[in-house]
Amino acid sequence: MNKYSFNQISLIQYILIIFETQVGIGILSLPRDLANTSGTDGWVSIVLGWMMSMLLSLVIIRIMEKNPDHTLFELLSKYFGKWVGKGLAVVWILLAVYAASIVMLSTIHIIKIWIVQEVRNYILMILFVIPIYMITKQGIRMIGLFAELVCFVTLWIPFLLLFALRDIEWMYLFPIGKEGVFPILAGVKSTIFSFIGFELTFILYPFLKDKKSASKGIVIANSLTMVVYVAVTIECFIRFSPTEVTDYVYPVLNLLKVIQLPFIERLEIICLSFYLFIIFMTVIPYLYAAALGISQLLGKQDHRNALRIILFVWVLSPFFFIPTSSQITQMANSWGLAGICSAFILPLVLWVYGWIFHFVRKESKQ
Fold it and tell me: Which helix (H) or strand (E) covers residue 126, if one does?
């Protein structure tokens, strides 16, 4: 019997966890990043980034199909031996903690700018840590249920953006390819960062109840992310001029700001408050993966002690370090480079190495 059979997630939950992890805080600034590199052809870069993430996602599925009962941490020890495998697992865990920490710090920074300027960072950190801990400590099944809840709670936000489609100019998008091939390719770098999150399949696959549908699920998750990114980016491009988009740090929030409804003011504050649910779903899977990895490396069944230590450090951090906007940007860029290693390079290395590993093992048995 699969040791994870009592803590499984459905295909829908698997799709939503990956999708909501990807569509996190990065979407708020993605139109500006693409406008700076690719102009209004940035949506083409999103499609190219989607194709790359799709291929790498399927590579991860092929790796996990040969090791259906192993998480990434167990797989690394199986392929590379006890000490090298644990060393690589520690690096991956540190990257997962770093990713979750950057999203949390960025979230606090945005909330302070747009909603509660006078509230101290440590208070926001404590308020955010409490629900994150309550969900993450319950394990992957609770995370899957929370992903479904987040989908229902925030499903109305994309449709609300349609109210911003006034005084638009479709000609901003034409001619397609006017910036040339190289700017479009340069924009793929930004989109790759935004698609990072599919590598959590390394952790989710053993818990997936219907493993035969894992490939279909990862395709749907990546495609949903691509549709959301393209729709939001194009809407920003046709609502604001190509130069105006680059003036906004978070163009999507500015897009909400132009919506005028007779019964609501400061609509972006309401939407951002609900969007916190999606941001939590970017933090929680990485946090759970890190806590699970630490517990497996130490031979423990319970991941909650590792989780408590990580969150305790988070609560203490605002007393010693409050990052500026430029520092958050630098940290996000460094995570983007590290994320490429964990989400794009590592799967290819494991795929090639795993093929050799299983081939040699098969020959030795014969």
Answer: helix 121-136
State the DSSP H helix or E strand holding residue 182, giving kind and residue range, or none if neither.
Answer: helix 181-195
- Report how far residue 112's alpha carbon sits from residue 98's, in angstroms, rounded to the nearest whole number: 21
The pLDDT of residue 168: 82
Kindly compute the dihedral angle of the four CA atoms of residues 133, 144, 335, 29, in this order, to the nearest 10 degrees.
-100
Check if the beta carbon of residue 312 is closer than 8 Å to that of residue 125: no
| Cβ(287)–Cβ(100) below 8 Å | yes
The mean pLDDT value of the chain amounts to 88
* Largest interatomic CA distance in the chain: 76
Condensed to tens digits (0 to 9), the pLDDT of residues 291-315 reads: 999 999 998 888 999 999 999 999 9
Neighbouring-strand partners of residue 9 = 208
Per-residue pLDDT band for 141 (boundaries 50, 70, 90) equals very high
Pick from 165, 221, 257: which is nearest to 22 by CA? 221
What is the number of residues in the chain?
366
User: What is d(CA 129, CA 321) in angstroms, rounded to the nearest whole number?
Assistant: 17
Sign of the C-alpha dihedral computed for residues 216, 219, 225 and 228 taken in this order: negative
**How does DSSP classify residue 41?**
G
Residue bearing tokens 């590792």: 306
